[in-house]
């Protein structure tokens, strides 16, 4: 009896054990794919947006900064570029014939705009040291919006030139001023990807302008007695108005001066303390001596001034002019060149994320130089299939990839002096436009379309110059960091590879663990 009871008891126990073990194994098998998927998703999120802050308070603050700071700056720059690039769309969509453009008058309009843009660079950036950004930047947006609408009433190229000059003075506030504000809000490891996403909003403006003009030509040509290109100017102006209003109401200025309604007192303090401490500097007369006494101004001004000439195919509308010579369709003239814009957007965002992931800025310039050199060589050959020529013009969009990364690099290097940082960022854009003011007249005259032989040779030379200036700037940056002790010793520096990925643990520790010395002395370049 006892034996039977024991057997009866034993059997269920054994079966129960079998069932439990199998159940656990099945559950573990089911969990493994989920865990792998979560890990992959986590790695992708870190690559795309960086390591999340360790504290809940800082994560909440960063989310607010990303929403309000990034959204306004991107919308404003998108509108800025929408108004800047609409001239090319208008030119190939009837404005040339309607306003009787002759010879190189289109180039002259672009040159006048560039001169106004140059004059407005440094005054606009220094104005942000005195006038709150939430007042200054939206005010400039209102001005260029009104002037864009005035373009619809222009009767000849001379009036277009006058309006574009004053429009440029207002639009000069946006690009370098926004990079200055991004550098004020974000940590070094957060800055590159945000700068790249911000820079890509310009290309989204260019993309939208082409789509908008093509749509307007189909649906609004002749509506209420206006040509399609006139409606483009009016709509681009109207688009800027709500963006300016959003800035007046929601942009939070800089961390040290913000009174934003959506930030608590604790978050305002955290916005300042979470950033590395910076020496207190003032807007004084010795600013010029401080700026000119360091290599930063010379190197970064030269770097961006020349590397931005890799954007010449896009800036001067060469793709549109080539398509116009091949195809009489207005829609095709506006839609086909969007391939270059798409390449510019993708390359800018991808390169910016990679530079933050590996904490290394300078290689982006090699990517730009290589891509543009290949593009120029293919266009110089010319007698290639239509698809290959299309690819060559589209590939030139990679020349925009350094906009975010080079400004992030300059922001990193000049963090210790707010006024120098403002001057360096403004000067980068200023000298870029100084060169472009005569560059297009010499190498990209409208009468040289569609082959632009001189321009393609110049593009190859600029690619070589970009590589040389990049290497020189990298050498100076590394020299200074080594002097400050950011490398343990020269042997370590020589043995280390130029770019490394910083792990989440190292990023959160601040790279202070002695066991991680090889990583701890890495720096963004």
From TrEMBL:
Xref: InterPro entries: MFS, MFS_trans_sf
Compartmental location: Cell membrane
Topology relative to the membrane: Multi-pass membrane protein
Region (Disordered): 1-35, 485-525
GO MF annotation: an example: pantothenate transmembrane transporter activity
Biased composition (Basic and acidic residues): 1-18, 485-507
GO biological process: pantothenate import across plasma membrane
Keywords attached to this entry: Cell membrane, Membrane, Transmembrane, Transmembrane helix, Transport
Cellular component terms (Gene Ontology): plasma membrane
Transmembrane segment boundaries: 61-79, 135-154, 197-216, 228-249, 297-323, 335-354, 366-384, 390-410, 422-444, 456-476
Family to which this protein belongs: Belongs to the major facilitator superfamily. Allantoate permease family.
Protein name: Pantothenate transporter liz1
């Amino acid at each position: 009896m006892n034996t039977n009871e024991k057997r009866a008891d034993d059997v269920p126990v054994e079966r129960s054990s079998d069932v439990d073990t199998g159940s656990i194994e099945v559950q573990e098998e089911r969990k493994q794919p989920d865990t792998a998927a979560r890990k992959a998703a986590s790695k992708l999120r870190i690559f795309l947006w960086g390591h999340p802050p360790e504290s809940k308070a800082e994560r909440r603050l960063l989310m607010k900064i990303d929403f309000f700071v990034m959204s306004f700056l991107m919308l404003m720059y998108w509108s800025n570029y929408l108004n800047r690039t609409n001239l090319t769309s208008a030119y190939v969509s009837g404005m040339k014939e309607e306003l009787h453009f002759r010879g190189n008058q289109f180039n002259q309009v672009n040159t006048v705009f560039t001169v106004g843009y140059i004059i407005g660079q440094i005054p606009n950036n220094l104005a942000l040291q005195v006038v709150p950004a939430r007042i200054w930047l939206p005010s400039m947006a209102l001005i260029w919006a009104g002037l864009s609408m005035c373009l619809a009433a222009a009767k000849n190229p001379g009036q277009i030139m006058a309006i574009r000059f004053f429009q440029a003075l207002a639009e000069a506030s946006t690009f370098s001023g926004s990079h200055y504000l991004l550098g004020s809000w974000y940590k070094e490891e957060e800055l590159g990807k945000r700068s790249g996403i911000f820079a890509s909003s310009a290309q989204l403006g260019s993309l939208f302008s082409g789509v908008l003009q093509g749509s307007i030509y189909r649906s609004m040509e002749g509506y209420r007695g206006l040509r399609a290109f006139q409606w483009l100017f009016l709509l681009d102006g109207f688009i800027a108005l709500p963006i300016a209003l959003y800035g007046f109401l929601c942009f939070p200025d800089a961390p040290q001066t913000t009174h934003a309604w959506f930030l608590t007192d604790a978050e305002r303090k955290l916005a300042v303390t979470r950033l590395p401490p910076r020496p207190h500097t003032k807007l004084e007369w010795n600013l010029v001596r401080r700026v000119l006494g360091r290599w930063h101004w010379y190197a970064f001004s030269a770097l961006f001034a020349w590397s931005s000439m890799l954007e010449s195919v896009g800036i001067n509308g060469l793709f549109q002019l080539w398509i116009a010579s091949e195809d009489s369709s207005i829609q095709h003239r506006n839609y086909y060149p969007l391939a270059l814009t798409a390449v510019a957007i993708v390359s800018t965002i991808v390169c910016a994320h990679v530079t933050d992931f590996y904490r290394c800025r300078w290689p982006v310039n090699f990517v730009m130089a290589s891509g543009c050199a290949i593009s120029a060589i293919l266009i110089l050959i010319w007698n290639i299939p239509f698809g290959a020529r299309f690819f060559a013009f589209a590939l030139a969009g990679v020349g925009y990839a350094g906009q975010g990364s080079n400004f992030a690099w300059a922001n990193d290097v000049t963090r210790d002096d707010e006024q120098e940082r403002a001057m360096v960022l403004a000067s980068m854009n200023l000298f870029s436009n100084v060169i472009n003011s005569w560059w297009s007249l010499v190498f990209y005259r409208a009468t040289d379309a569609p082959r632009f032989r001189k321009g393609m040779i110049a593009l190859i030379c600029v690619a070589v110059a970009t590589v040389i200036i990049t290497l020189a700037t990298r050498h100076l940056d590394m020299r200074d960091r080594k002097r400050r002790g950011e490398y343990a010793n020269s042997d370590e520096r020589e043995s280390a590879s130029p770019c490394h990925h910083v792990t989440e643990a190292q990023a959160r520790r601040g790279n202070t663990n002695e066991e991680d010395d090889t990583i701890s002395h890495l720096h963004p370049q």
